[in-house]
């Protein structure tokens, strides 16, 4: 057992760090630190910088533009990215649909989509959840019917993150009504500009617009837009969701936020002195930092295990990452609320593009707290995660 | 970065797990508890035979040169089997003082007896009002000729009833809560002026309250600098905390395993109660708590080698916080999920709960260590 990174790994960390320092646009970083929304342009600009460096699709196989890094290198990269902080690559493209296409797609699809995903020429969104299909995703009803050389798609998706920016969607559609519910689903990709696609924003409790409802009315999609085999979409969806086990803990994000809390808590006064000098507050902060350290170690155990023994058999500890990671993220936003106290209250209206640059930074804290309630709900709610542990790990 | 055991460490784990599987089922433990002193000389002999009692000592001193990871492996196994024998008191703590600061003569006098299992030690540190502060020492050691005269009262000395030698913290200078002027002394348990009141502890171990009245020891009794040994005490107690973290992980693993087995077999309403989601989620939360504890136990083990004493202490304090929170949750919920049977002396789960509970209150509880981390400026 050894906690230390090798010399090569340390050198790699320094390289990553200095690249972020030299290349992340300062305004982008500042907005992230202050919990502001980024505009589409700001995000795409950064992703293209990353892609030009060859790090936009770091975890892809090298023949498709990946880096060939070790598990530890990926870990270091993600940690540094999250804690700098810089925007994470668009998960829907590079972490979700990309791997499905290079694993299950045909050569033509690979050639057509992968470079555009890497350079974010297309902004992708995910068409999974439906109003009646949340945790029970396999019950989805959106229908794709084969008519000649086209799929005709009808139905509704919801919680579609940043669909307002999207050029493309990957969509789970029912293609066989008679099969068992998991067996009749296909994985189809198509343009969000297609006739019959309507995007309706959903305003969340923080006042922001990150998610949308997406409606499909007789949307015509070429048959060649099916990825892999018809009715095998559920397998691809499971592959996609299981693909990134360690990033979900978001340890770097929480670390960065804890640094910010320490910083703010040494400036904001309570009882005539900085709140960081309040014993009760300081102990709460320490408690959160300790939890995060434990999570970081759990994550390192999973990473080291994957590096040594491959990703085939997941380390049982990986189930801990989503539950604890989300709880800790939520705790950090609670601590920020505590620091800011009565100045959490002022509310400002977001701009049309989701940008909220006009607002005073203190006004971001309550929205961030409200917004972070989502992290224990999305990506398989924490209750679903507990079902998974009970079944897969404890054999209950 | 690597969390795997080496081949040798794996063999060590297999050998101690094998030994305890053969000789330490719950029924045997009840018998050992009734032996004189409350633990089994025969099992202690087997631990010696396998070289486990000499594990952390340097080869030059007759040991096997094991490090923190080796101790972690042993303590986890001892926890899993709910072992009563005084490994912590003798090998980890007693051995720790000798390893870090013992003179050649002190090592020659004490290490062979530890390694071959013929001698055990006890750490007489806790005082009536010291609680968890290691520097809070009212017991005095006054110079007399070349030697020392020790006076004071020590409480809840684990293995105090059996130990051949006591390791006593005593003040040579200054006032009760000064951080300097503290020494560490080897005192024969049968020395004139040592009186003991022995009793079983809540978790089935044995301890003693020990009074030292005009106990005379020679100049060679002091381990390290008799006027300034707080750093030594902190180091050894940090190692004891790390060992307790590992023991707690073993206890939690076994508690969770036992509980999951129980809810798979216990039937109510015609089905196994483990089929109910509320119980499944509780068991999953126990798993999460145990894994977080395991991570921090590993962290603490590796932190034992940190050069910087402050960084080491802070990391180990953080680990003790995580272990304290996890063990409370796992222990309490193990009883809850067992239902009525968990409340009985007859079922083994309650005994695991009790040992876990006592670990929280040994060498600093969760609040104590959380405050230390907070006062040290946090952990990020």
Question: What would your notes on this structure say?
Answer:
The complex is a heterodimer of chains A (396) and B (380). Chain A has 396 residues and is an alpha+beta fold. Helices cover 44% and strands 15% of the residues of chain A. Chain A contains 12 helices and 10 strands. In chain A, the strands form 3 sheets. In chain A, strands 1-4-5-8 form a 4-stranded mixed sheet. In chain A, strands 2-3-7-6 form a 4-stranded antiparallel sheet, with no helix packed on it. In chain A, strands 9-10 form a two-stranded antiparallel sheet. The radius of gyration of chain A is 22 Å and the shape is globular. Chain B is α+β, with helices and mostly antiparallel strands. Chain B has 3 domains: 7-119, Butyryl-Coa Dehydrogenase, subunit A, domain 1; 122-227, Beta Barrel (Butyryl-CoA Dehydrogenase, subunit A, domain 2), CATH 2.40.110; 231-375, Butyryl-CoA Dehydrogenase, subunit A, domain 3 (Up-down Bundle). In chain B, the strands form 3 sheets. Chain B has a 4-stranded mixed sheet with strand order 1-4-5-8, covered by helices on one side. In chain B, a hairpin with a 2-residue loop joins strand 2 (140-144) and strand 3 (147-158). In chain B, helix 7 (230-265) packs antiparallel against helix 8 (277-303) and helix 7 runs parallel beside helix 9 (309-338). Chain B starts with 6 loop residues before the first helix and ends in a 5-residue tail after the last helix. At the A-B interface, helix 8, helix 9, helix 10 and helix 12 of A face helix 7, helix 8, helix 9 and helix 11 of B.
User: For this entry, what is the oligomeric state of its chains?
Assistant: heterodimer
Mean pLDDT of chain A: 92
Strand order, largest beta sheet of chain B? 1-4-5-8
- The SSE string of chain A, one letter per element, is HHHHHHEEEEEEEEHHEEHHHH
Q: What top-tier CATH class of the largest domain in chain A fits best?
A: Mainly Alpha
Total number of beta strands of chain A: 10
- Supply the helix-strand structural class of chain B: alpha+beta
């Amino acid at each position: 057992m050894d906690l230390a990174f090798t010399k090569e790994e340390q050198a790699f960390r320094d390289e990553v760090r200095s690249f972020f320092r030299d290349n992340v646009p300062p305004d982008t970083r500042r907005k992230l630190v202050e919990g502001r929304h980024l505009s589409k342009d700001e995000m795409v600009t950064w992703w293209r910088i990353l892609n030009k460096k060859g790090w936009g699709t770091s975890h892809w196989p090298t023949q498709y533009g990946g880096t060939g890094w070790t598990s530890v290198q990926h870990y270091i990269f993600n940690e540094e990215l999250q804690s700098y902080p810089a925007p994470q690559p668009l998960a829907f493209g590079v972490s979700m649909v990309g791997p499905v296409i290079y694993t299950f797609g045909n050569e033509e699809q690979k050639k057509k989509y992968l470079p555009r995903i890497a350079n974010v020429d297309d902004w992708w969104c995910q068409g999974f959840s439906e109003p009646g299909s949340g945790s029970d995703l396999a019950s989805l009803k959106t229908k794709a019917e084969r008519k000649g050389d086209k799929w005709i798609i009808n139905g509704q998706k919801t919680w579609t993150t940043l669909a307002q920016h999207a050029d493309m969607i990957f969509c789970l559609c029912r293609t066989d009504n008679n099969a068992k519910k998991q067996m009749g689903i296909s994985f189809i990709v198509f343009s969000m500009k297609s006739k019959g696609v309507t995007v309706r924003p959903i305003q969340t409790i923080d006042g922001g617009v990150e998610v949308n409802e997406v409606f499909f009315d007789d949307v015509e999609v070429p048959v060649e837009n099916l990825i892999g085999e018809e009715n095998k979409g559920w397998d691809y969806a499971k592959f996609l969701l299981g693909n990134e086990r360690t990033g979900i803990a978001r340890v770097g994000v929480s670390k960065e936020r804890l640094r910010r809390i320490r910083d703010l808590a040494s400036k904001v006064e309570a009882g005539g002195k900085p709140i960081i000098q309040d014993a009760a507050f300081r102990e709460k902060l320490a408690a959160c930092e300790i939890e995060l350290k434990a999570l970081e170690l759990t994550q390192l155990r999973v990473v080291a295990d994957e590096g040594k023994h491959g990703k085939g058999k997941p380390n049982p500890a990986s189930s801990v990452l989503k539950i604890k990671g989300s709880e800790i993220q939520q705790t950090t936003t609670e601590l920020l609320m505590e620091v800011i106290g009565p100045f959490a209250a002022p509310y400002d209206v977001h701009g049309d593009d989701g940008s909220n640059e006009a607002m005073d930074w203190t006004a971001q804290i309550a929205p961030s707290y409200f917004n972070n309630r989502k992290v224990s709900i999305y990506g398989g709610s924490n209750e679903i995660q507990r079902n998974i542990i009970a079944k897969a790990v404890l054999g209950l | 970065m690597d969390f795997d055991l080496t081949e040798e460490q794996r063999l060590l784990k297999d050998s101690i797990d094998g030994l305890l599987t053969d000789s330490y089922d719950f029924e045997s433990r009840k018998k050992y508890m009734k032996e004189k002193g409350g633990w089994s000389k025969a099992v202690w002999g087997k631990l010696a035979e396998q070289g486990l009692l000499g594990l952390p000592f340097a080869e030059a001193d007759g040991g096997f040169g094991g490090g923190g990871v080796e101790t972690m492996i042993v303590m986890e196994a001892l926890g899993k089997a709910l072992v009563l024998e005084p490994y912590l008191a003798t090998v980890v703590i007693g051995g720790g003082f000798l390893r870090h600061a013992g003179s050649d003569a002190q090592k020659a006098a004490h290490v062979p007896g530890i390694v071959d299992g013929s001698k055990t030690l006890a750490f007489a540190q806790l005082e009536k009002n010291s609680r968890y502060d290691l520097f809070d020492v009212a017991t005095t050691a006054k110079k007399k000729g070349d030697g020392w005269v020790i006076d004071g009262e020590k409480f809840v000395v684990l293995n105090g009833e059996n130990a051949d030698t006591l390791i006593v913290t005593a003040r040579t200078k200054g006032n009760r809560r000064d951080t300097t002027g503290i020494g560490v002394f080897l005192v024969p348990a049968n020395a004139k002026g040592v009186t003991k009141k022995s009793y079983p502890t809540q978790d089935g171990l044995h301890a003693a309250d020990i009074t030292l009245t005009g106990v005379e020891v020679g100049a060679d009794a002091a381990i390290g600098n008799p006027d300034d040994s707080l750093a030594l005490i902190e180091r050894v107690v940090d190692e004891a905390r790390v060992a307790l973290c590992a023991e707690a992980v073993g206890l939690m693993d076994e508690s969770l395993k036992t509980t999951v087995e129980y809810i798979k077999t216990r039937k109510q309403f015609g089905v196994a109660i483990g089929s109910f989601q509320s119980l499944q989620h509780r068991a999953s939360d126990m798993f999460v708590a145990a894994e977080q504890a395991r991570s921090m136990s590993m962290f603490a083990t590796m932190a034992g080698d940190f050069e910087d004493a402050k960084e080491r202490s802070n990391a180990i304090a953080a680990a003790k916080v995580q272990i304290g929170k996890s063990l409370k949750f796992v222990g309490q919920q193990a009883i809850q999920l067992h239902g009525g049977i968990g409340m009985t002396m007859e079922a083994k789960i309650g005994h695991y709960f009790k040992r876990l509970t006592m670990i929280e209150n040994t060498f600093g509880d969760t609040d104590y260590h959380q405050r230390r981390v907070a006062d040290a400026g946090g952990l990020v």
